[in-house]
Amino acid sequence: MNKTARGSLLGIEHLEEKEILGLLKLARRMNPLKARPLLRNKRVVLLFYEASTRTRSSFEIAAKSMSAITTLVQASGSSIEKGESLLDTGYTLRAMGADAIVIRHPAAGAPHLMAQHLDIPIINAGDGMHEHPSQALLDAFTILKHKKSFKGLQVAIIGDIYHSRVARSACHLLTKLGVRVTLCGPPEFMPEVAATLAPGLHLSRHAEEAVRGADVIMLLRVQKERLAGQEIGLQDYIAHYQLTPARLKLARRDAIVMHPGPIIRGLELTSEVADGPQSVIVDEVHNGVPTRMAILAQALGTAR
Predict the structure, then answer these.
(1) pLDDT value at position 82?
(2) Which of 7, 236, 238, 252 has the fewest CB atoms lying closer than 10 Å?
């Protein structure tokens, strides 16, 4: 194969606005509790080279809600541990009857490589520090549930921007839809070229500035071990970037708080914020299922 199989979802960067809005519209029609057997007799393989709870589980539940047959393949306990190449694993799964592969891989570009050589849809469930397209789509779905439209919205994304594939996909998606996005974090976690990615993207070194007047505050996971290796320490991060009730008050009164998970209470945000009325973190997780149902239905050509 020398071109990507139709239906693959490899990233947000190259999607057009109408494609994004089409997926969100389809997701609104998906109900896992009253699902139709759109994927009956389809075989969906979940190929995860990295640990995952939310993404893997929601893709599995999404597929099974539409009567698909799912198979989980993890790096540990498989031929991957014996040194089998990515493409050979893909060829094997296709030969066994896989109709689509959902892949998470630590190397950026791994889903793209697989998509170029297999004749079935490949869905990127996170590749290295590159993208996490299904997370961006479910976050957009969540925003639309709480806001009437994307027009005029201000979104603050706070945390480890540099290492976050969630942030990259979110920036691509939100700026395509005309949202003003402000990225905020310690200098060590802020790529200097971020402001050149797209119109509507801005940088801030101060959490108070980033959240002031924001409609949406999206927090990112911050790994403690990465903080230990940087000039900024744990307590400094908490003092300058943690989302507290006081900082949240600087946002709009109806602002929502989001986080792709897993959250670290006491570091990225306080328990008061995590459990407060403006937090939609649990709803965000819930929205992963209908969003990924839409992705799978479209990938396998069964969306109506």
Answers:
(1) 67
(2) 236
pLDDT tens digits along 64-106:
999 999 999 998 766 676 678 999 999 999 999 999 999 999 9
Any idea what DSSP says for residue 241?
H
pTM above 0.90, yes or no: yes
| pLDDT number for residue 199 | 78
Check if the beta carbon of residue 211 is closer than 8 Å to that of residue 245: no
**254 class by beta-carbon count within 10 Å (0-12 exposed, 13-18 middle, 19+ buried):** exposed
pLDDT at residue 75, as a whole number: 80
d(CA 284, CA 259): 8
How many Cβ atoms from other residues are within 10 Å of residue 190's Cβ? 17
- Residue 130 CA to residue 128 CA, distance in Å, equals 5
For the chain, the 3-state helix, strand and coil shares in percent, each to the nearest 5, are 40, 15, 40
Nearest to 290 by CA among 10, 3, 24: 24
Angle at which helices 110-117 and 86-95 cross, to 10°:
50
Q: In what order do the strands lie in the sheet with 43-48?
A: 69-74, 43-48, 100-105, 122-127
Query: Binning pLDDT at 50, 70 and 90, where does residue 302 land?
Result: confident
Average pLDDT over residues 20-43: 95
Provide the pLDDT for residue 230.
73
CB-neighbour burial class of residue 277 (10 A; exposed 0-12, middle 13-18, buried 19+): exposed
| Structural contact between residues 36 and 296, judged by C-beta atoms closer than 8 angstroms | no
Go through the domains of the chain in sequence order and give each one's CATH number. Answer: 17-131+286-299 (3.40.50.1370), 134-284 (3.40.50.1370)
Phi-psi region at 178: left, alpha or beta (left = phi > 0; alpha = psi -120 to 50): left
